[in-house]
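Subject: design request, 466 residues
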């Protein structure tokens, strides 16, 4: 397996080099040169595996045997030893034909832990094996930052800088990042929104001289390894629901901001997982819903919502999907994305939109509907959803089809977003790991939302490479 760029000027990249490259050097995103396909016989064999064993089986399709089997097994086992549930990503039934895939049992109580715990192990391995200093640079709308930091804090040979939008993440998300005191961690609280943070990150990675000088590595979902690691729980959820319901095919509803999580579901489907529909659940920042409805991809006015991790207007991984729906036409992608950067919008033809609608549904959930869904499910089932998971469940109800089994992704523990839960009148008890955060001092640097301000902090943070 080799990797290539969606924009066509990078190809023949191995697994570890793709991991280290992050954003492709031509400004595109890396994808497999061929998506591996899985037979019905293999699916049947995989259905009997533990989560860790399934992870190894899927990684084996992508790693080119670049990592010795014993080392890879140790990394996977160490990644999920920190999870609070033995199944890692258990599935629970909410009601007839609706299941919930719980992705919040990792150390920071968010789905990002599943890929980022593994990526932390992989970065540690690469730093040691290649004697290479690793300087991770990422942006977060809340959860990626905490999960990334947790994966590499205190690790020798690794530094990590995370940008988050100042005042636009939940208090728990902020505390999980800024109460970390390890010297290899820098938190930059940026005046602006997540899209501003993400744009600056991509600009810095696109500056190849700066990227090489500072040995920059990506932790966001622009990194293809993060997408691959997330495909595992789609397979795992299907197997568990198949056991419980006998369903031969399922649909997924996915709370979506940066399109990485749902692209992992799309990749799993392309690999051969029996997926009917993928439903994009958004909030009021609903650029993806508008695209599915109209074929136009155009940011609107930014809105703060009760589901801040989805407060994203420009979804990085959308380029990967466009690449496939346009028939892997790298020239068309480069033209579209250059036009988007220049004009702030892009459109696809009616024929392409028809293909999109055959694969995806979409539904935007406003703040009122989000809170109502939390209240309704807590009252009827006793299950407390966080606001992002509530958006997923509401979208599943609105876009699901009778007789079709739907799996909705629960992407975070409700304690991470108590500001929203309090508005429902529901009182929850915090896990001890979260309660303890409020007694710790914070450490962060507040900066202007300009690339020059970020560069100034990075140069100070990475003195050996400056």
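Subject: RE: design request

Done. Sequence follows.
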């Amino acid at each position: 397996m080799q990797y290539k760029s969606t924009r066509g000027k990078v190809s023949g990249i191995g697994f570890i080099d793709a991991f280290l490259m992050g954003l492709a050097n031509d400004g595109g995103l890396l994808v497999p040169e061929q998506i591996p396909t899985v037979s019905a016989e293999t699916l049947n064999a995989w259905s009997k595996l533990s989560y860790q064993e399934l992870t190894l089986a899927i990684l084996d399709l992508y790693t080119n045997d670049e990592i010795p089997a014993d080392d890879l097994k140790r990394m996977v086992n160490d990644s999920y030893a920190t999870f609070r549930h033995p199944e890692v990503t258990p599935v629970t039934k909410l009601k007839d034909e609706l299941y919930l895939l719980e992705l919040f049992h990792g150390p920071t109580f968010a789905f990002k832990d599943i890929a980022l715990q593994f990526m932390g192990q992989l970065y540690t391995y690469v730093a040691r094996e290649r004697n290479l200093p690793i300087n991770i640079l990422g942006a977060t709308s809340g959860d990626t930052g905490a999960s990334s930091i947790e994966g590499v804090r205190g690790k020798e040979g690794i530094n990590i800088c995370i940008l988050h939008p100042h005042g636009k993440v939940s208090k728990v998300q902020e505390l999980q990042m800024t109460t970390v005191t390890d010297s290899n961690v820098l938190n930059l609280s940026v005046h602006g929104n997540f899209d501003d943070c993400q744009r600056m990150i991509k600009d810095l990675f696109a500056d190849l001289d700066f990227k090489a000088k500072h040995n920059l590595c990506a932790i966001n979902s622009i990194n293809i390894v993060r997408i691959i690691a997330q495909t595992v729980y789609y397979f795992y959820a299907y197997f568990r629901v198949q056991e419980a319901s006998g369903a031969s095919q399922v649909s997924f509803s996915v709370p979506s901001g940066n399109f990485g999580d749902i692209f992992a579901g799309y990749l799993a489907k392309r690999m051969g997982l029996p997926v009917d529909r993928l439903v994009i659940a958004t909030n009021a920042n609903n650029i993806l819903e508008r695209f599915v409805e109209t074929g136009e991809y155009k940011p609107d006015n930014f809105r703060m919502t009760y589901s801040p991790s989805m407060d994203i207007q420009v979804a990085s991984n959308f380029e990967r999907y466009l690449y496939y729906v346009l028939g892997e036409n790298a020239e068309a992608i480069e033209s579209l994305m250059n036009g988007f950067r220049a004009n702030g919008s892009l459109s696809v033809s009616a024929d392409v939109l028809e293909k999109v609608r055959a694969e995806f549904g979409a539904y935007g959930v406003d703040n009122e509907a989000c809170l109502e869904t939390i209240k309704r499910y807590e009252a009827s089932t006793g299950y407390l959803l966080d606001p992002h998971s509530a958006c997923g469940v509401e979208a599943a109800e609105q876009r699901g089809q009778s007789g079709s089994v739907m799996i909705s992704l629960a992407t975070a523990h409700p304690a991470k977003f108590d500001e929203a839960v309090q508005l429902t009148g529901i009182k929850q008890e915090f896990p001890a790991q979260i309660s303890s955060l409020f007694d710790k001092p914070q450490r962060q640097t507040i900066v202007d939302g300009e690339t020059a301000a970020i560069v100034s902090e990075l140069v100070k943070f990475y003195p050996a490479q400056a």
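The longest helix spans residues 224-245.
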